[in-house]
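Translate sequence into structure tokens.
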Amino acid sequence: MLKSKKKLSALLMATMTLMLAGAAGFAQRHFMLANAARPEVNVQLSGAVERDSKLMSLDKSTVVNPGEILDWNIAAENTGNASALEYKTVGHIPRGTEFVAGSAKADAAKALYSIDGGKSFSAQPMIEVKQVDGNVKRVPAPVSMYTEIRYEWSDPLAQGGKLSASYKVRVK
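Result follows.
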């Protein structure tokens, strides 16, 4: 009986040790996942209207007039603890405005445009136009059809890194 108590005690001790080791491993994995290195990118959009050769900040109460130029700025900052890979940001071209050709600016970023509400992007969106002879020809879409602009950076957005991009639209 003494031998079986020792075996039971040893078995119980081994089981408890395995459970404790398993729980410690789970806790460590959970802690590591909870504190895993990951990017956290904060993005801010601000706008200004060009009036009398000055930029006036846009807010909800600002009235804009046909023909005025709105200057949109996108600022991004990585406040996480890892680099953001293949970082992209999208700017919307508001209804009632038209993208100003050549106004897309961003250091080391590629600008792509959408004419379908952001479903697809291209450096030069194309449309099909029926010719007089009945044939269909693909031609560059006019900027008046642009609905979104997407900036893509090939380099990672490092921890603590900041990026900015801008574009202009004209009020119709």
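Note: Helices lie at 2-34.
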